[in-house]
Amino acid sequence: xxxxxxxxxxxxxxxxxxxxxxxxxxxxxxxxxxxxxxxxxxxxxxxxxxxxxxxxxxxxxxxxxxxxxxxxxxxxxxxxxxxxxxxxxxxxxxxxxxxxxxxxxxxxxxxxxxxxxxxxxxxxxxxxxxxxx
Length: 133
Ligand SMILES: [Zn+2]
Fold this sequence. Notes:
- By secondary structure, the chain is mainly α.
- The protein has one domain (about 5-115).
- It has 5 helices and 4 strands.
- It has helices spanning about 5-20, 65, 75-85, 90-100, 105-130, and strands at about 25, 35, 40-45, 60.
- Strand 1 and strand 2 (about 35) form a beta hairpin.
- Helix 1 (about 5-20) runs parallel beside helix 5.
- The longest helix has 29 residues, at about 105-130.
- The protein is globular and about 50 Å long.
- The N and C termini lie far apart (about 50 Å).
- Zinc ion binds near residues 30, 33 and 65.
């Protein structure tokens, strides 16, 4: 059984940072409303394990869409088109078809990759904050 604990945590943090602006608000992929970065969730458009770590398949979503609108799948679809274009669904389908088997080694490597990307974003955010002062 694969252990996704570390990679899930790092991926969620990474996506929330990637999808947020300099005021620390994410734009919800489904409704477009701003949500505080610390409390927004991440959501997968396609729940296939093969697409679990596809960058465009994973986006920040507000609590309202997750909880009260049952993940607002319809809004998520429109948000995907707006953000990535109509061809995103073909891209995901192809990615799922050619995706390599996920192993624990892959998962562990991805956890480290997300941590590296996150560190770069945190560093950039720190520099931007310091430049504003
Ligand atoms: Zn929303």
